[in-house]
Write a structure and sequence with these properties.
Distance between the termini: 53 Å
Number of strands: 0
Order of helices and strands: HHH
Shape: globular
Strand content: under 5%
Length: about 100
């Protein structure tokens, strides 16, 4: 049986999601961002694992994974600020 549990990683994802919600992002959007980050992380981890004895290959793959993550963040950043501003403004008028 193989079970991979990254307790600290999951706690960080939950904390990050809660922080985004506190900043005004909707729970649906936060859930999507957290899932995307988790999926990317595990995809990268599984891709790198077979090369754990080849430091050069692992470094190369880590750089590639970081680049993919930066591109994902850049795409997400386009829609997030407007969503947070709109939700935050909406919550102020509800008071």
């Amino acid at each position: 049986m193989t079970l991979l549990e990254r307790e600290t990683f999951e706690a960080a994802l939950q904390l990050g999601g809660k922080a985004l919600q506190e900043l005004g992002y909707g729970s649906e959007r936060v859930g999507k961002v957290v899932r995307q980050f988790r999926d990317h992380n595990f995809k990268t981890l599984h891709a790198v694992y077979p090369h754990y004895q080849d430091q050069h290959q692992m470094i190369s793959m880590a750089k590639q994974g970081r680049q993919e993550l930066e591109e994902m963040f850049a795409r997400d950043a386009v829609g997030l600020p407007a969503e947070a501003d709109g939700e935050a403004a909406g919550s102020e008028t509800d008071q």
